[in-house]
Amino acid sequence: MHIPDGFVAPQIYLPAYILDISLLAYSIRRIKRSLNERAIPYLSSVSLLSFVISSITIPLPGGTSVHGTGIPILSILFGPWVAFVSYSLILFLQAVLFGEGGITTFPINSISMGFVGSFAAFFTYKALSIFKEEVSIVISSFVSIMLSALLIATILGIHPYLFKKADGSPLYFPFGLYITIPAMLVPHIFVGLGEGLLSSIAIKVLKRRLKVEG
Amino acid sequence: MKDKVLFSFYLLFIFLLSFGSSLKMLAISTSLLLLALLVSPLEKKIDILRKAFYACLLFNLLVSFTYFLIGLLSGQNRWEYLVMISLRSFSIALATFIAFRLINIYKVFDFSKSVSFLMIIVSSHIFTYLKLFEEFKNALKSRTIGRIGSNVKMVFISRLLEFFFEKSIRTSEELYQAMKSRGFYD
User: For residues A31 and A192, what is the distance between their CA atoms, to the nearest angstrom?
Assistant: First the structure.
């Protein structure tokens, strides 16, 4: 679930915007350097793929289901920089076109899910390359989801300590770290497993397709 | 230029709103936004209101309403927090929906040809992809009697991914050719 507007303090989202825009500008420049004229068509089609993947619901044992983010899939297949830019673009358009996730919380979602999620998935996958591919994909997807969730939980959880009224009542997000960390991490164990399952199917299918396409 | 100015005003307004903690100030801002929506020439006003309401409903119920309930159970009345965060969240969402109906977002980003073009391509194709995705889901539903099993769902997801992956590769090539032939890289 994306964080809506109003829960994050400007003292947090403004520096996050500066960091996010710098990272995005660097990533776009880097992608353009390596792909030249094909950068825009390539980024747009990967973003569209990312949008579809994040709309897929993965069934889990017990009758429940979770939404994938598609970040580990994009990161492993196309590299973390492309995954970060594509996912951030989709996040931004979702915020301004569909109202899903806020405009003030965009940089936090973009950094935590797009940047940290992509790089965590990519480097975990590389580090676990000695194992069977399915295992490394599931673990890297799980690590990516858990690290993103941990970062969001930390950002939200510091709010009541930093921003409160004179009477001690919160001004923004009300729950502290002792609540946000378990509240975010426990459900994300299932989300991470679901994402791992989706990534494992998707990467197998798409790599096979890539071989066929040559 | 008009879009860039409007966008700057929108950003400033959002920034000020996100600082706001006085109930009076937030109530006035929300009323002004509702009034602006009412007198604006925008179509589907109820739709904008509904979207803004749903954009903050779930998170508010899960977080601020839970915080309010916990307060009630421990003998504290936290209604002020509940009203403040709900008003702030709703007014920012409403301002966003109104603003992006009035502002051409692609013109705001036209200082960078690449970024603006990337946004135009993705947002124009999103609806096509969404429609295709819905058609895929409906096709599966209409061909299945009873509950859709996990195995069928897995096969469905695989086929879906294959289709969209191929479509993305094709789209990428078509876009490249279209951009090149229209002199984008000249």
Answer: 28
- CB of A48 less than 8 A from some CB of B: yes
Other CB atoms within 10 Å distance of the CB of residue B43: 8
Q: Which residues of A touch B172 (CB under 8 A)?
A: 38, 41-42, 44-45
Low-confidence winner among A93-102, A172-181, B26-35, B92-101 (lowest mean pLDDT): A93-102
Is residue A1, in this structure, part of any structural domain at all? no
Q: Is residue A2 in a domain?
A: no
Confidence of residue B185 (pLDDT cuts 50, 70, 90): low
Q: Which domain holds residue A125?
A: 10-213
A192 vs A59, higher pLDDT: A192
Q: What is the Cα–Cα distance from B184 to B178, expressed in whole angstroms?
A: 9
- Is A29's Cβ below 8 Å from some Cβ in B? no
ipTM beyond cut 0.85:
no
Q: Give the minimum alpha-carbon distance from B185 to chain A in angstroms, rounded to a whole number.
A: 7
Tell me the pTM.
Answer: 0.86
Cβ count within 10 A of residue A72: 34
Domain ranges of chain B: 2-107, 109-181
pLDDT of residue A183: 86
Instruction: Please tell me the distance in Å from A60's CA to the nearest CA on chain B.
Output: 8
Q: Total structural domains in chain A?
A: 1
Q: What pLDDT does A169 receive?
A: 86
A14 lies in some domain:
yes
Residue of A29, A31, A48 to mutate, interface with B, max B Cβ within 10 Å: A48
Here the CATH number for the domain that contains residue A134 is 1.10.1760.20
Q: Judge whether A208 and A178 are in contact, CB under 8 Å.
A: no
Q: Is residue A105 a part of any domain in this protein?
A: yes
